[in-house]
Inverse folding.
């Protein structure tokens, strides 16, 4: 079988992005900066209330895989779409970016997952924040049968998103993926996804970490603190260090901290002229890092490439880069 | 009935935008900067070959109506979508922008129209150009029965797009709309849409102009020259002046020329920091101009507002503004 750098397992989602006022989030009881799961009727109601939008393929792990492929890496994705127009868009965008994606679509009337992304802008700093409401639709139906063992065995890293913990069949799919990956002596990477997601599944996440099921953990500051049950990042770091081989904690414009078994590397963020929309920054950081990791770069270079990739996607509205990221790899070597 | 500033009749299209190399246009025999009509199999083939894309509601007249509503005007739209996800997106975006849009959807298996927009960037100047391939789908089925006479009678201006000439039932719908509008002593505005469109329908367009069916004509430099069958804009102007009450000729960064019966007003373009994507510039110019016209502004102010609105939309990828345009009206009065 063809060999891959990274295979990712995640929710296959089309993002529907619109600018909105902060008051809209209050009216609809959506915690700012977080991801709320919604059912079909609420999705319809919220969409009706939202402003004119732009659609683009999303999904956290899917964005990461698209980023890896854009950097020139060999990437594959496992995820569930429906047989509708949104599903076709998602599949097209993955394939067009060069991501191997062959999970069969869900038959029936359930639609492809949609994430309503409300982008708010701070009047003073002009910085934006995204608040998400996700209708999982077809994603709820991913199950162990969708886990292509040969694909996972052919990939250096299997990348999993925390968001998948919200559904039971998806959890069983993940368990299978981890077992296959580790059985083939491959690495497992995991992203905590969202502080609210950590709140929902903290005990299970710690259990996975403590039983050595995760080799590389991706987290942002808020998620690390949520996992450590502390507002103090240093305390969270103390609790986390040594649990996984590599723990990446991204800190937006403050850069990132990378914890290995017995070291902590602090890296600055790549300079950015203009932040247009931070959607996808964490996903693309993981893309850059994993591209570096699977190409045997030293940890500092992995982090720098992560930062470059993240800084690229925040220039645009949407969670995927609009141009090939491969030049970033050359920039790193220069 | 509620009164409207402008009712527009046009193709109801969802745009699928992707960056591409110029060589892609050659490979697929698409004339750069133009709009090519394609059938369903060719649309599928071209989409497969295109890169990862972003979707947003489009359609020339629809963009103009969305712009008028965004400026604070009362806008209505008549157009045909299918009962699919793309159709729902189009309807949502029109309603969310405040445009009255109640044309019933087409039933059956034909899908909502899609415009594949290939954005090419000049390596030196960084300026972008859009090349379009349109699958008309449900739009082909608009017909006189969709023309709500009461809505047209309730609107100061009925705005029509030249692109509609590509289908016979749509032409009959336009004839009805013009008859109703003029019967109610309202104005008819028309956009030439595209130089290739003018080539296809030159004789009919001249016939409409010469029989006084058009009061306000929108055109860009290339379209005016195509209509005048000359590469010299001055010759085209000589042929056009005096035919319609108002003729607007937009010239991108060179501004615009507005011809009235016995005057020619030359206006500069609004200054723009950065041109990201020119898609929709002409549509939004018409929006600003018609907002001004229906609010009894002098012709120079109509042109300036057109230029402001156009300069706003070219900052983003896509053909509709991402923020409310109403502040531009205040800027004009300041």
């Amino acid at each position: 079988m063809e060999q891959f750098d990274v295979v990712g397992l995640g929710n296959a989602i089309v993002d529907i992005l619109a600018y909105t006022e902060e008051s809209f989030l209050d009216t609809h009881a959506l915690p700012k900066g977080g991801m709320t799961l919604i059912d079909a009727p609420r999705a319809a109601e919220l969409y009706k209330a939202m402003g004119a939008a732009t659609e683009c393929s999303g999904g956290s792990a899917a964005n990461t895989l698209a980023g890896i492929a854009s950097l020139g890496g060999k990437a594959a994705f496992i995820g569930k779409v429906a047989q509708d127009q949104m599903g076709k868009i998602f599949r097209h965008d993955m394939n067009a970016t060069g991501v191997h994606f062959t999970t069969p679509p869900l038959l029936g009337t359930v639609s492809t997952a949609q994430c309503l992304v409300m982008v708010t802008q701070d009047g003073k700093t002009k910085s934006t924040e995204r608040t998400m409401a996700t209708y999982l639709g077809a994603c709820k139906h991913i199950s162990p049968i969708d886990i292509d063992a040969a694909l996972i065995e052919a990939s250096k890293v299997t990348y999993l998103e925390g968001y998948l913990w919200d559904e039971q069949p998806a959890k069983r799919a993940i368990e299978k993926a981890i077992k296959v990956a580790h059985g083939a002596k491959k690495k497992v990477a995991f992203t905590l996804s969202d502080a609210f997601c950590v709140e929902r599944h903290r005990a299970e996440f710690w259990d996975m970490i403590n039983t050595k099921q995760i080799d590389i953990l991706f987290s942002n500051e808020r998620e690390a603190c949520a996992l450590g049950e502390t507002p103090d990042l240093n305390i969270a770091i103390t609790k986390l260090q040594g649990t996984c081989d590599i723990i990446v904690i991204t800190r937006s414009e403050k850069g990132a901290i990378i914890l290995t078994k017995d070291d902590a590397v602090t890296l600055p963020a790549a300079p950015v002229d203009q932040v247009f929309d931070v959607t996808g920054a964490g996903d693309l950081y993981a893309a850059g890092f994993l591209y570096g990791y699977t190409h045997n770069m030293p940890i500092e270079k992995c982090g720098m490439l992560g930062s470059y990739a993240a800084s690229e996607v925040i220039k645009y509205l949407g969670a995927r880069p609009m141009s090939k990221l491969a030049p970033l790899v050359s920039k790193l070597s220069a």
Q: What stands out?
A: DSSP finds twelve helices and 14 strands in chain A. Chain A has a mean pLDDT of 93.
